[in-house]
Design goal:
Blueprint (H helix, E strand, L loop, with lengths): L22 H9 L5 E4 L2 H4 L3 H14 L3 E4 L14 H38 L15 H9 L5 H8 L3 H17 L3
Parallel strand pairs: 1-2
Length: 182
Amino acid sequence: MRLFPFRSATYIYHYTGADFKRPAHQRLLRRLRKGDVLVIKSIDRLGRNYAEILAQWRALTQERGVAIVVLDMPLLDTRSARGDLTGTFIADVVLQLLSYVAQVERENIRQRQAEGIAAARERGARFGRPRIERPEHYEEVKGEFCQHKITAAQAGEKLGVCRATFEKWLRHDRDCALRGVA
C-alpha cells in the first residue's frame, strides 16, 4: 500500500512565455498524465500568446484530463466540481481575459524595449561584444593557414584569439574579396 499515491515534480524555467517551445515546458507536457494537477503561479507564466494559452489550456484539461490550478486566480482551478454551466462560463471568460492581458503586456514590453534600443542607438550606444582588432601579424598567420601549415585553432592561438574569431576574420576577408572591396 502506498501512502502517497501521487507523483510530484517541479519544473522551473527562465524562458519567456512568448511561446510553448520552451525545453522544460515540453518535458513537463510529456510527463503529464490524466488526473495530474498542474499548478502555475499566474496565467502569464503559462504563456503570453492569447490563442496559444487557450489552445494549451483546452488540450491539457479537455483532451488529456489534466487539472490546472492558477494560484493567483482561484476561479481558474479546474479541480473544482463546477459542473454547472455558469461556473464553466465564468472560468472561460476569466481565462480569455487573462490570456488577452498577458499577450497585450508582452506586446507592450517588446514595444518599450524596441523604443529603448532605438533611443540608445540615437545617443550613440553600441550593442554586442566589442570588436577585436586584428593583430599586425594577422596576414602572416593567415598565409600559413591558407598554405595548410597550421590549423584554424593554431592560427587563433598565435593571434591570441579563439578559432571562431579567426574564422570570422577569414569569412570577412572572403566576402570583401568577392565584392571587390579592399
